[in-house]
Amino acid sequence: MLLCCSLLAAAKDRKVKSGEEITLKLHEWVKCGKFRVSPAIIIEDSRCPEGVTCIWAGLVNIEFATGKEAFRLMPGSYKSIAELGYTVTLKDVLPHPQGATTLETKDYRFVIVITKN
After folding, report:
1. pLDDT, position 71
2. Domain layout of the chain by residue ranges
């Protein structure tokens, strides 16, 4: 996993200021100060499609990589990386499923906020 992340780290980072919201694609890196993070893996997406009646709303679980460690987030959750002094919050995962249409990995977008602690 870390080798994969190291290879991806060679790509150009997008940059944000602390507290700024940004939308990323899978494997796209963002840098806030000296902290780097990327949405790496879609662990699960069982969200109920819009316009469909479901018994359970479902969930979406995303694994993020920093190059040194990996962690999982669901929309509305956050991870504090204490040793680096940053917090990552996953605000939303787009697009929301529609009917019987299956989302492709390339279609996903991840809305995150990185804040300096």
Report:
1. 95
2. 2-116
